[in-house]
Prior knowledge:
Helix content: 10-25%
Structural class: alpha+beta
CATH class of the largest domain: Mainly Alpha
Shape: globular
Number of helices: 14
Distance between the termini: 73 Å
Amino acid sequence: MIGMKVIYKQIRGPIFTWLILWIGFFNIVQATEMTLTSGVKGIWIHPNEREDTSFTWRAQWIWLDEGTSSDVMLARRFFELTERPEKALLRISASSKYQLYINGEYICSGPARCAPHHQSYDILNISDLLREGENLIAVRVHHQHRKFSYHHQGRAGLLAQLDMIFKNDQISLYSDANWKAQLDPSWDSNAPSINRFQQVVSDRVDMRKYLAGWSDLSYDDSDWNHARPLIRNVGWPAPQPNANPQTLTPPWTSLVPRDIPYLMETKLQAANLIQTMKFTISVVQQLDEGLKMDPIKMDHYRDQILIENFSKYLGSSDAWVIPNSDKEGIMFLLFDFGVVVNGTPLLKIKGQPGTKIDILCAPFEIDQHFTHQVVDSDFRDRIILSGRLDQWEATYFKPTRFMGILIHQAAKPVHLYFAGVRKLEYPFEETGMIKSNDVPWVKQYMEASAKTIKVCTTDGYTDNYRERRQYAQTGYYAAMGNYWLFGDCALQRRYLIQVAQEQEANGIMPAYAPAASDDYMIILDSNCLWIRSLYNYFLYSGDEITVRELLPAAKKLIELLHSYTNQFGMIDDPPYAYWMDHALNDRRGTNFTLNGHYLGALEDFTQVLNWIGDKTSETYQQRADLLRWSLREKLWDDEKELFADALIDGNRSNMFSEHANAMALAMHVASPRQAEKIASQLLKEDEHNYIKRGSGVVMVTPAMSYFLHKGLCEAGYTDESLRLFRLRFDKMLESETNDTLWEEWWLDGTGRTGILQKGRSRCDAQTESAFPPALFAEYLLGIEPIAPGMKEILISRRMTELRQIEGKVPTPFGKLTVNWDLNMKKGGELELYVPNGVLVKLNLISFNFSDGFSIIVDGNQFKVNLEDAPIIQLSAGTHRVKF
């Protein structure tokens, strides 16, 4: 057996180190590979897959020399190979973000956002990039310091280990003191945070100090210092054999292989120049002084000479020459990508040394005005040109449809070779769709839901415009679109796990996750929706492994919620706040809407226990039964003929909301008589300001609209519900919008206080609003999964005005297709394709048959006896049902 020789050396360095390691065979990782770029494959782990059990971490966390202070480290590891490896796996992580280069070529960034107590690492198959002879791994790492959301107030660090197979040998190269490390002198560590909820920052880079070519093989790093290993004696990594114990170096107490797909990274050029103009220097002084810059009127004026030069530049290797500005002038260029993309701005540019360039990003325009300042966020990077050809990429992504470039007082022309973004996109596969030839708006809202989820998703469901937090309820609402459009379960699983990882000893969970922060925030309805999300995840994925792992956390939480209940089983004066999207609502005492969420959690938890054969489910069903009765009996107001918002010391509140009454319908709290009274008021066309109706009833926000429309459909008012839905949501899809579903009813204000605050830009994409696919699937297509993994699906005929509706539904076994062709007088047809592994149960009662009527299934006639056989079962294959 002949081992392979690997030569490690530092280019032009004083010391040459030769090392030969032979460890033997190692198993291939049992996981999923996906193609990234340049032949690199990213490996990630499904619930039923695993990391290579023989793998051992030998790498050390490394950072800059003790006396060097910077938020950005540049790290290099040069090595020589006498032949190419058969397989080469690079495992890599960083606190907080890495950008990886192999032999001078950019590969990807990572890791997936995580809490450091469960540090995520990536596994990359880079076999096709390594070559015989000289090779280089180069990594740029930015550290987000301070303790907030995804990050501990702990050490910066890089961890990397390359394992290579040569025939029967394995050779490892890993991060240690042999790596070279250097701070990035161009980086300003006072770069401001993008928003108040995160430590991600907008770039402040002086390209005059940039180490050009640092990631290339030919770069001379002989004057760089050796990296400093960060040693610890608790948790991971374990101390080396016979090493003296060292003090704790947090974080990184547990390393977790990536459990979601990698983001797809694509360069996207800014090709649509929609406006050019010049500012006086006084306008932009606001930026230098940290003041809010006035929104820019989008009049779409374009300088003709600039436009001609721009047209020649597009699609060529030539530069776009931007004339020098007047002494007091500042050039402003505004581009439109046409859709919102999450991406890191990119520039390839050359100009006079010291020229300031601001890159401003915005996801949407408000009243024909551009602003890079959304509530709580400021998307402005700044670079200073070196005089050379500068290539710059922002460290963190911005949600960008409009990108503005400000060129400050350029005494000489600026040459722009490329302007655009590196688009970061979760690899959703849009496999589901519902549409109708009768009503095109059904498909339009399916597409809007898909766009909304994509805009709100990178490596977690977040509000990528502002808070970038993964809220504990977001996965519940995102699932309303995700499961029906994409059938993706990895994001749902990760969200559930990350919230549970933050659970406190008493069982409570954070408002968002990861939540490694003193700003913990508890939102009780989010906790209820986490339990409901666990049910949905089991239903749509069938992943019993993960559900059983999370069950103890769910039980602890459900018992904590029970401890807040009174003798009637209702949560009463709980010690934590609750959300309801901050809408006006009486939150004193026993709140109806919160208890509606709790009722849903109890019943969903009961069903999960039933599915796994846990007999304690009876306890939770009894609690649900008591709670439903109590809400119905205690909070109904006969005079108002609505459910009150709350019960305070035995007295009903005088406040009434769509929230409470929608929940009463959706959760079957209301009796048939009560449901009729509620529906008549909810469907009444009265005056309103999107905060309160003329009757004084508080209106739901877009997020809570799911329960409003589900409730009305459950009460038998499907067509009326959808007309109301369109009256409220259609403005979100008007021609000048992004065709996404908004956070609030306005883009330029907030009604959460009951007073519309103009001038506050909000968010035009939020997963809480992306619920239409679930609504359409259940109440138009008539589809209801009833067993884990969608192994059994109940299909019912829905009595609506639609005569034709069809859909493709993702399942773990493939697509289920459903096509209804209805004629209200003559009956109709149902065509189905059922994938292997799925059993469809046709609900005959829903067809409104009388005993003795017939139904034809695949050419066979069945006489309908509703008492004996209300269900027809259809297994895999194509089926045609006539009735």
